[in-house]
Design goal:
14 strands
Length: 255
């Protein structure tokens, strides 16, 4: 989320495209994940939230078929926007609220698979019976009137409220980092960023994720549509996930 943005509510939809070898992608056209999110308030201190959701329908002949949907773990938090015109330090703290298994519908876990593999930066949003405590720090500096850069560090504690993790730990610690180059125009915006994340309490190469992302959309006015791409660079999903198509709309409040 862009904490410097005006107060708004937004809807994001994303369609991961996977490759399971001879099974192909396997997922039906209406499979994917998304978020209803928002930033509320004015001034430096802002209230932020997101509500994740996902649906996965799989139909691949000899490999079987099935479908599921879910409402993920909602995030609520407080952010401190940067002072001035995209210059200085900012930060946020928050938590993901655990959801019960009753928020998953269907006999298979295709919905959760799409969310976890498609968005490793927020994979815990699609895990049931877990809670997450998060803290994020950012620094932004303008390069010109319309161009800016941002660096980010994040720390998360993933807490299993039901069954413990696969390695027997009740708590997993995660660290995140990233850099963004952005352009803010009078009627449009664009950005490119690289993000990284590591599960600090696990061993092995699969515990580190890197993604490359791009986004562009309309700025100004009450309705601001946008489109984006995400490419996996490193991590467990690289073998199966080819790319993710993202699109959404931001509804600016008070316009």
């Amino acid at each position: 989320q862009d904490w410097a943005a005006p107060a708004h509510v937004s809807v994001e939809l994303a369609r991961p495209f996977l490759d399971f070898g001879s099974a192909g992608d396997g997922f039906t056209a209406l499979s994917g994940y998304g978020y209803v999110s928002g930033i509320l308030g004015t001034g430096r201190r802002r209230f932020i939230f997101d509500i994740p959701f996902a649906r996965g329908g799989f139909d691949s002949g000899d490999f079987g078929s099935g479908s599921s949907s879910m409402i993920g773990s909602p995030f609520v938090g407080v952010a401190w926007a940067p002072e001035g015109d995209r210059e200085g330090f900012s930060g946020a703290i928050g938590a993901r609220i655990p959801i019960p298994e009753s928020f998953e519908f269907g006999d298979d876990d295709f919905a959760g698979l799409l969310g976890v593999s498609g968005d490793p930066d927020r994979l815990e949003a699609f895990l049931t019976k877990t809670a997450t405590l998060s803290g994020t720090a950012r620094v932004e500096t303008p390069l010109s009137d319309n161009v800016f850069v941002r660096g980010q560090l994040e720390a998360d504690a993933l807490i299993y409220t039901g069954e413990i993790g696969s390695d027997g730990d009740r708590v997993e610690l995660l660290g995140g980092w990233g850099g963004l180059l952005g352009w803010d125009g009078a009627s449009a915006f664009a950005s490119a960023q690289i993000t990284g994340r590591a599960i600090l309490t696990e061993d092995g190469d699969d515990r580190v994720f890197h993604t490359l992302q791009g986004q562009a959309g309309v700025a100004g006015g009450a309705v601001q549509p946008w489109v984006g791409l995400r490419l996996p660079l490193q991590g467990e999903a690289v073998d199966d996930l080819e790319w993710v198509l993202r699109f959404g709309v931001r509804l600016v409040l008070g316009e």
